Fold this protein.
Amino acid sequence: MNFARKLLTAADLPTWRTGLRQRGLRLVATNGCFDILHAGHVTYLEAARNQGDALIVGVNADAAVRGLKGPGRPVNHEADRALVLAALESVDAVFIFPERDAVPFLRAVQPDVYVKGGDYTLETVNQDERRLIESAGGKVVLLGHVPGKSTTATLARMAGASGK
């Protein structure tokens, strides 16, 4: 298997999406930083994939991650984060996008289902993203999260261990 083929460019997206539609497949999309992949991520991605027939993961580019998480992030380069995600069986495609929010990514992929983690509510999800999905007839699904599993917590533990 060549998982690098799952990495899509902006030029690839329309043809890829059209192919799914022609086969009658239901597309699920999610997005995030996915800086240090952990059990919470893979559990979430598997649950997201189970919402449809194919899962595309939008990955925030490095500059966007710095804007969202701070100057010490990301730990891993965007190409590395995307490649690790592409290696997962539950992930059908990965796309790196430069924006801090997912609106342009979602507009390009036109998912049937948009999945966000349990740290969101319908009121705290980016409302532009929500309106885009719902106005196109899609639905927003919120999944639970795995307690105690987060990149921020992992980095905090690592910083504590290195300080000893």
